[in-house]
Structure formats: C-alpha cells, structure tokens
C-alpha cells in the first residue's frame, strides 16, 4: 500500500472536515466518511455508495484506510479472545476481548511495549518500542467490532488497559478517544470508555478536562517506598500527588474513579497495607479493584491465597470503601492483566 496516501482511519471528525475542506468539499462529507469508517466499519471506498463516484475516485487516489490483519488470535477456555496485530514497521500490540454476561469489553493497547518498567508486569519486560498511532489504536476497536458483528454482538465497553501507558501517548490516545466518543464515530458514552493510568498527573488532568471518560488509576501500593520499588514512575508522581489528582477528576453523579491494586503475596497484602490504603482513600469517590497477581514467568511474584485477598478486601469494606476482587480472565492464553507481551510463541 503506497505510504504517501493519507490514512483516514484515526482522524477525528474535525480533522476529516479540515482535510476535505482543502478539496472544497462540504462539511457533511466528513461526517459521511466518518460514519462509513466507524459506524459501518468500511475499509474500502467502493462501498461508500452515498458518496459520488467522482469523490470516491478522488478518495482512492489520495487516501487509504489502514486495516492490518491480526497475526494470530487465541481463544481462552473462558471465552476471552486475544489478538496480536503487527504493524508495517514490525511493531506489535495486543488486544483482549472479555465477554461477561451482557457485556463485551475490549482491552486495547496504546503503545507497543511500555517504558515504565513496573517490576511485576510482563509488558515492562519487553521494553518500549513506540507509541501507537490513533489509527492503530482505533483499528483494534474496528477489528473486534467487526468480529462481534459477524455473530450478532456489539462491543459495550473499551478499556485502555492493554500494553503501554496511555497518558504517555497523549496526543494519539486523545485523537482515538475523540473518535470513540463522537456521534460520527463509535458513539460510546464516556462511562463506557476507561483510561487506566499509573497517574501521569498533568495529562490526567488534561484528559479529564477534555473528555468525560472514566478513569482507573493503578496504585498497587499504600506507601511511597513500597510503590517506588514496584513502580519506578512513583519517584516522579508520588502517591500523594496521584491521589490528590484523582480526587480532583470531575465526576458525573454516582460515577467513581477505579483504583487498581495488584495483590502480591508478602509484598503489599497485609492488613496494615489495607488499613493504610483505606486512610489514603478516605472520602474519595472511588472503588477499589483488587487484581490477584497473574503469573507470567518474567518475574517471581506470586498471588496471595484467596483468604488473604478476602481479608484485605474486608478491611477496605469495613472502612467504608467499595472494593471488589477482579475475576481472572484469559490466563490460559496469557491475556490476563499484566500478561501481555506479544510473545511469538
Ligand atoms: N499503564 C496503565 C495501563 C495498563 S493497565 C496502568 O498501569 O494503569 C494494566 C493493569 O494490570 C495495571 O493496573 C497493572 O498494575 C496491572 N498488572 C500489571 N501486571 C500485572 C500482573 N502480572 N498481574 C495482575 N495485574 C497486573
């Protein structure tokens, strides 16, 4: 595919409008094309039959719609599906579809690899390759929307919880979010799009000011010394700063920020840790997701026993916090939290 053609996938509606206006086209043309791209998941201009033949010819001459095939797809015994996408330069990223009763949640990647080096995460072990483009981020959603449509199902939620730190790829991630939320794009409500972050504070505030998306913040510890060992980024954005920023996120009625806390046996799982976490979060509009550690062979952490996790959760509940234990999904295909590393097995 000639690289000099402009890729329309990944362009938010305002960019499409600006682009077509250079050709002297009306604004509604951009909306029409956008609906084809994301509403109807078209990747071929020939099918866009409400556009004139002449406009379609112009589009195929100057533009393209990137649509990389999945290099492999794994299906878990619990119904979770993982796709590996390889892009033109060889960089790879994975996405995970998690079916759960009525919900179809897609977990997408924002970077190929990750630069944060968290001690317990498999993505960290692969290192950082590059930021994904908005086209590559949105494509993960297009790909699974089409796969679901073929069996009469629809995507209900999108979570930026795959590879990478979304807020360190702010510009491409916010273009992609623009498309997910736009009425001319995927039409998701902000409630159903969640950005998970370690707490890159300035970008967290900027994104919260720009889009009404939901936030999940990976705390994973209740003290700075402990968090800095697990997550080097804590030396830049410490617990107090992250929690303060979290408390400032504007929330619509009865919405909450999710706090993620990976449970690591004999590291951050004691009753004292639970009590310290509860103190840190007192009065904040949050819900805690406890994530039992998923093993992956790139580190030697273990998950606490169920009773230990339950005891931890019960302390949070007794302190008046909302807390649940995240169910482990897709572990048999290395698709669970913290297992994504684009291994070519
Ligand atoms: N960088 C962002 C987006 C990735 S989300 C963030 O950290 O929030 C991935 C989630 O899985 C994070 O909450 C992370 O703490 C958690 N995680 C990483 N490795 C894990 C593992 N091995 N088992 C369980 N959870 C893990």
Topology (elements, then pairings):
Elements: E1 6-7, H1 13-21, H2 27-39, H3 53-62, E2 63-64, E3 70-75, E4 81-86, E5 92-100, E6 103-107, E7 111-113, H4 122-126, E8 128-131, H5 134-149, E9 157-160, H6 170-181, E10 193-197, H7 201-210, E11 214-218, H8 224-230, H9 239-248, E12 257-263, H10 271-281, E13 286-292, H11 306-318, E14 322-325
Helix pairs in contact: 1-2, 5-6, 10-11
Q: Work out the radius of gyration.
A: 21 Å
Structural class: alpha/beta
- The amount of beta strand, in percent, is 15-25%
Main sheet specs: 10 strands, mixed
Bound molecules: S-adenosyl-L-homocysteine
Count of helical stretches = 11
Distance between the termini: 28 Å
Tell me, rounded to a whole number, the average pLDDT. 95
The sequence of SSEs as H and E is: EHHHEEEEEEHEHEHEHEHHEHEHE
With strands numbered from the N-terminus, the spatial order across the biggest sheet is: 3-4-5-6-9-10-11-12-13-14
Categorize the overall geometry.
elongated
State the helicity in percent bands. 25-40%
Poorly predicted spans: none
- Give the strand tally: 14
Q: What would you note in describing this structure?
A:
Strand 5 (92-100) and strand 6 (103-107) form a beta hairpin. The chain has helices at residues 13-21, 27-39, 53-62, 122-126, 134-149, 170-181, 201-210, 224-230, 239-248, 271-281, 306-318, and strands at 6-7, 63-64, 70-75, 81-86, 92-100, 103-107, 111-113, 128-131, 157-160, 193-197, 214-218, 257-263, 286-292, 322-325. The model has no long low-confidence stretch (mean pLDDT 95). The protein has eleven helices and 14 strands. The longest helix is centred in the middle third of the chain and has 16 residues, at 134-149. S-adenosyl-L-homocysteine binds at residues 120-121, 161, 165, 196-198, 218, 220, 260, 262, 291, 293-294, 296, 337-338.
